[in-house]
Amino acid sequence: MRLVKIRMEQSNQDIRAILITEAFRFIDRVVTLTGVRRIALLGSIVTSKADPKDVDILITIDDGADLTALATAARRLKGMAQAKNKGADIFLANPAGEYIGRICHWSRCGPQFRSTCDAWNCGVRHYLHDDFGDIRLNPGLVKEPSLEIWPTVIYRQKVADDLLPFLAKYEVNRSGA
Fold this sequence. Notes:
Helix 1 packs antiparallel against helix 2. The chain contains 4 helices and 7 strands. It has one domain. The protein has a 7-stranded mixed sheet with strand order 5-4-3-2-1-6-7. The protein is α+β, with helices and mostly antiparallel strands.
């Protein structure tokens, strides 16, 4: 019985490491996209929770930013997480610091493609899934997220030690720029 528990703990640690690695790969992909203003991590992945259910990333974008490339990168992250029976959510905020929705998870966005879409304004802004009936982020969390990564690393809570090597890259890049 103890051997099974040890294997389970190791498996959870491995999955956590994969989620963190893939989250930072995603960040590396989207940090240079036009219209991206800020990237932050939220939720249990920031803590030392051994078995987080998902990765939550908050991205502040310009009002007119094209979301196509961001949606493509998000689907890649979500697919990897789903392969491990986990999830990934990419939350979006506007420059005023207001939550505006999530990235649409469909490869083709608009009511002509998905009659079951629950976004309030499906297709008005491609790849913006404004499902406020399901999810609304706390306004305080949107304005001051737990851990900002880009353009400046800002810690608003203690973060898990396994995040520090990934964050060091962004701290070094800032001080060397």
